[in-house]
Amino acid sequence: MQIQSRAEMIKTKPIDCLHFIDGKYVPSKNEKTFVNINPATEEVMGTVAEGGKEEIALAVAAAKRAFEGSWRRMPAGERARIIRRIGDIILERKDELAALESFDTGKPYGLASSIDIPRAAYNFHFFADYMASIGTEAYQMDDVALNYAIRRPLGVVGLINPWNLPLLLMTWKLAPCLAAGNTAVLKPAEWTPMTATLLGEICKEAGVPDGVVNIVHGFGPDSAGAALTEHPDVCAISFTGETTTGKHIMTAAAKTLKRLSYELGGKNPNIIFADADLDEVIETTIKSSFINQGEVCLCGSRIYVERPLYDAFVERFTAKTKELIVGDPLDPNTTVGTLISEEHYNRVRSYVELAVEEGGVIETGGKRPEHLSTGYYLEPTIITGLTNDCRVVQEEIFGPVVTILPFDREEEVIKQANDTHYGLSATIWTNDLRRAHRVAAQIEAGIIWVNTWFLRDLRTPFGGMKQSGIGREGGMHSFEFYSELSNICIKL
Ligand SMILES: NC(=O)c1ccc[n+]([C@@H]2O[C@H](COP(=O)([O-])OP(=O)(O)OC[C@H]3O[C@@H](n4cnc5c(N)ncnc54)[C@H](O)[C@@H]3O)[C@@H](O)[C@H]2O)c1
Ligand SMILES: N/C(=C\C=C\C=O)C(=O)O
């Protein structure tokens, strides 16, 4: 399908986003809505129904009915077929979903089309296949007794999502949640409602029974998000977002003792030893620094380079960064689109100004591109000359901004890499095999890549430690979160 121009798409597409509750698109009871702004044109693309306590109550009631109805009793093979079909339909509608994801986020259409949407489909295909292979455990107590565990679904689960990889991350939660036999109430991020809205009709077309998947739009505090974390019939929350938000949700969920899975913020080290292959390092570090405008929790925004390689790296990396094309997300030549919102643009810009106050040197970037007066565009930015204790090196910026610091010894860089409240991911570049294993084992992070970045095997544990998260999702870890185990002991 040729991508229609933004104007045509919005004229012809129902861009107003309604809730999807019990298999039907509905407005809020009080008719409240908020506007959805396109970050590249700063134009209103449509309205979004603003959900609150009432809409969450309707959605949870529908999910509860569906759970107690056909869904939990559906044979696993039939459930797997439906889940796989969701993935199929996402691929059939890839162009449309990629365009809407690009309109909502400002990310290049090419990125949405090559990464976000295919990975959203794969999340369903992966868990539909994986669920057939999961087992539990059994133990014989000599000839006295036999113990075996059975796995059962939790019930109604709340899934609260961020705006940076909207459909990818929403489906990373929804696929295993459904595969484990649960029903779900999803709360998309307020900045990115469109692909979430279409996910409702895609699930219905795939054969998901009404009420199994419900989508309620709105904000966090005093809105749909908070209501979901407080509802007594929601037994678990999987949340992806800022660490500060995670703390608020934990307080709200405590009242009803909900099970929690958290994927939170990060400030990830990218450690480059002098023996690394510089061409390979530069090519991947451009991605791990600036892909999706740096709005990826896994981005390696703290770059540490062993001193013998430092000058060559700064020179080559800066030159390569200057070649990146900041522009219209729908232009196939664009490699860096817009930030998500004016609010976020101003926040990221403030960190560039802070970096100068802290003594940093802006090697490139830090400004709005002169030829782009409309849209929340920011040049990819490289900062040197700071120390590890600077706020710009310590705090998550979540934009196209990286710092580069030199180091002399392995022990020194491990200490600096770990000197953070976060512990989500890390990247290590070296051709010394023993050093790779030795350093990786000492880095305090949930995910550590060596000589690569964002290479994902969905069977692996995914999540962060310290202030970057609680729990792991992926493969068996998702089933550990989205189901209960009971041990049955039979006397022989
Ligand atoms: N660890 C990961 O896998 C991962 C992935 C993507 C993004 N993130 C993190 O997410 C952040 C950016 O995403 P964001 O700005 O959407 O995060 P955010 O915390 O502002 O919002 C995330 C979601 O939580 C909702 N929310 C906000 N306050 C709430 C409350 N009190 N109760 C219930 N829901 C509430 C929001 O409406 C949104 O849907 C960054 O910190 C990034 O590192 C982490
Ligand atoms: N959760 C995942 C990616 C998170 C990206 C954060 O912005 C994944 O790849 O499964």
TrEMBL record:
Its EC number is 1.2.1.8. Residues 26-486 form the Aldehyde dehydrogenase domain. Pfam families: Aldedh. Keywords: NAD, Oxidoreductase. It is an enzyme of class 1 (oxidoreductase). It comes from the Bacteria. InterPro entries: Ald_DH/histidinol_DH (IPR016161), Ald_DH_C (IPR016163), Ald_DH_CS_CYS (IPR016160), Ald_DH_N (IPR016162), Aldehyde_DH_dom (IPR015590). Belongs to the aldehyde dehydrogenase family. This is Aminomuconate-semialdehyde/2-hydroxymuconate-6-semialdehyde dehydrogenase.
